[in-house]
Amino acid sequence: MIVLGLDTTGKECSAALVSHDKLLAYRRKKIGRGHAEHLGPQVQDILSTANIKPNQIDRIAVCAGPGSFTGLRVALAFAKGLALPHNIPVLGLSGLFVRAMNANPSAQGQIMAAQDVRRKEIFWQIFTNGLATGAPKLSALSDVQSALTDSMDVTGSAADMLSRTAGDDYIDPAILAWLAMDAAPADHPPTPLYHRPPDAKLPGGITPK
After folding, report:
1. How far apart are CA 68 and CA 8, in angstroms?
2. Please, what are the domains in the chain?
3. H or E segment at 154?
4. CA torsion sign, 129 to 60 to 19 to 66?
5. Secondary structure of residue 30 in the 3-state scheme
6. What is residue 81's DSSP assignment?
């Protein structure tokens, strides 16, 4: 199986092409903004490097969020556009899950994936032996601290807020792609995972439904 992994949820624009036991091609660039302009050429580059045609891709895995409200939709839209003419399944995987599995590849014990989403709030989720123990939550720092135990590891950009060691906080597209190999497409639809509703207002300051 050949899987293409894509992430545009943060400042990184990254893509990877993997098989079951090999990293075929990998590109990662810190750009801040402009994911829509960079992602297409980046994917074209890795396909050329690996000598793979789009119709040879078996799955496309996209980090569905949390992240930039606009950015995370770039990879989702690109993946759907690439997949449609070739009938390729597209899977959306939570960035919290990808971070947890990257930090704890053995899937043993408990780990909290926690993202600093500003406004003194954290978007977080706990995983036990590789499985989520509940849905992702948006909480104040004090509430997350109450859920954290001494034996629990923490990964993500909010680790330092929780007085835990913070590692390199980015989504590895190769890990994302490998995780998608064993995932059921029906359980991972390519839909955005937003940490809070959009701040957009209709004329007159009305909040859209």
Report:
1. 8
2. 3-95+170-187 (3.30.420.40), 104-155 (no CATH)
3. strand 153-155
4. negative
5. strand
6. H
Strands 121-128 and 131-132, sheet pairing? antiparallel
Confirm if 21 and 51 have CB atoms less than 8 A apart.
no
Q: pLDDT tens across 147-202, in order?
A: 999 889 999 999 999 988 766 678 999 999 999 999 999 999 999 999 876 655 55
Sequence-ordered strand ranges (E) for 98-152 = 110-116, 121-128, 131-132, 137-140
Amino acid in position 44: Q
* Listed residue (171, 166, 116, 167) closest to 139, CA to CA: 116
Please report the sign of the dihedral spanned by the C-alpha atoms of residue 77, residue 92, residue 65, residue 22.
negative
Encode 145-168: b = buried (16+ Cβ within 10 Å), e = exposed. eeebeeebbbbbbbbebbebebee
End-to-end CA distance of the chain: 41
Residue of 4, 36, 7, 39 lying closest to 170 (CA atoms): 7
DSSP 61: E
Per-residue model confidence as pLDDT tens digits over 101-129: 999 999 999 999 999 998 889 999 999 99
